[in-house]
Amino acid sequence: MLTRLALLAVALVVLVAPPFACGDTKPNVIVFLADDLGYADVQCYGGKIATPHIDRLAAQGMRFTDAHSTSSVCTPTRYGLLTGRYNWRSKLQRGVLGGISPRLIEPGRMTVASLLQAQGYRTACVGKWHLGMDWAIKPGAEVSELNIEPRAQVFNVDYGQPIANGPNRVGFDYFFGISASLDMVPYTFIENDRVTSLPTEDRDFLMMHGREQGGKTRKGPTAPDFDAADVLAALTRKSCEFIDRCADGARADKPFFLYVPFASPHTPILPTPPWQGKSGINPYADFVMETDAAVGEILAALDRHQLSDRTLVIFTSDNGCSPQAKFEELAAHEHFPSGPLRGHKADLFEGGLRVPFVVRWPQHVAAGTESEQIVCQTDIMATLAEILDQPLPDDAGEDSISFLPALQGAAGKRDHLVSHSINGSFAIRRGAWKLLLCPDSGGWSEPRPGTKPAADLPPLQLYHLADDLGEQHNLQDRQPARVGELTERLERLVADGRSTPGERQPNNGPVDIRAGLPKAKASASPGPR
């Protein structure tokens, strides 16, 4: 049920924000993707950490309270956001890629970048890629394809050779950034298809500023001039430079798309000196504040070129907060990264998957509004396609559902959602009902998969989120028909290769929706048909 305030917001959108028309100027598009930023790490979502720039975006646009990544970890979320396709339809069925893994996005697959590029956009990715690229492998050597490479492989790459099949091959005119998470090798910047400095040293970095006993990142190839603490500033500077280069064209109806997947506040948690101690909480909170300031600098570049009014900005995060943030230290200051949600990064619970999602689009999205509509990051593709009046082909955006109606104050189109955890466990949501096909978290929080506490639990979990947002009351034994209906729907979505209307499409890997069930029960039907 909509609250009175929400109804007023809907009315304001209808009155203040006219729908986009085909004859209008195409908007510039910026998508910010924070790394391991929890749902309530942003102050406008209830957190204690100051995030004035993200909060300003929300005050000037729409804040979604039921937005989700497709997965609770890095690589699969990025695949889903850029392709408009559930990550588990790819060949990566669990875990994440490493820094020297080969490309994951299939050849010829449309991405948000290639969609916009075909519409005349100048496109750039500045930040953490983490979707694989084809490095030049030394003769007789090998690298892991679908997981993080072991130490023995990190020097198996000829880093002086061009990189094939990176961001430039999936729709980005320009790329600057790092290959994967900032705790993965190689530690060097990449510009388009080459490293900017050869990683000739063998180094690592502290996982958290000032914590000598807190562990270090994976050791490996590092450029002599590379410092992990400098990465956020470099990504911010390069993002602003791209806007500077595009500004004249953007004013002349040559729009741009800038995708900014930050490497922060993911480990290594290394706020720079001006931000150290700034939060009064701990280094993670300082790093969140510095990331927010980076958003502010990039938005200021838009303001400087008078482009803010013609730019659609989306801010979100790839998954929930990681325990590396030191939850107990944050809690001592009454800050809880997941807010009222259960779990965190890697989990199938809401704390791993529900993320901040803010959209600012002046003159089209009314300021200061809020939406309870279910949205998924896969939906960015279909939303932009609808704005540009470009129907998606059957083999693109198979799980992308436009949230443009929600931006304009109408009812949204998405009524279901499929989620995935680090170990390949599945959940399906329809309306307020959420079914987890595992007895445990599917990730890192308790009960952890494979533990004795998990073994003593029912094999399935069913929650009614409208009444139980914290996922505390498992109703699977009281709702067998609901369990059966949701299971059957998930099986159909997998078999069809899509969750949107269109021709059936093949999945790129074997999909086992019961991967998270106890092995002894995996062959049994989890519910009535």
Strand content: 5-15%
Strand order of the largest sheet: 7-6-5-4-10-1-11-12-2-13
Number of helices: 12
Percent in helix = 10-25%
Compute the gyration radius: what is it? Answer: 22 Å
Annotation, overall tally of beta strands: 18
Structural class: alpha/beta
Oligomer: single chain
Overall pLDDT level: 94
The biggest sheet, with number of strands, parallel, antiparallel or mixed sense and barrel status, is: 10 strands, mixed
What is the helix/strand order? HEHEEHHEEEEEEHEHEHHEEEHHEEEHEH
End-to-end separation:
30 Å
Low-confidence stretches: 1-18, 522-529
Shape: globular
Architecture overview:
The protein is 23% helix and 14% strand. It has helices at residues 4-16, 52-59, 74-83, 112-118, 231-251, 283-304, 327-331, 350-353, 379-387, 404-407, 452-455, 480-496, and strands at 28-34, 62-64, 67-68, 122-128, 174-178, 190-191, 194-195, 201-203, 220-222, 256-261, 311-317, 357-360, 369-371, 375-376, 416-420, 426-430, 433-436, 461-464. A ten-stranded mixed sheet has the order 7-6-5-4-10-1-11-12-2-13, with helices on both faces. β16 (426-430) and β17 (433-436) form a beta hairpin. It is globular.
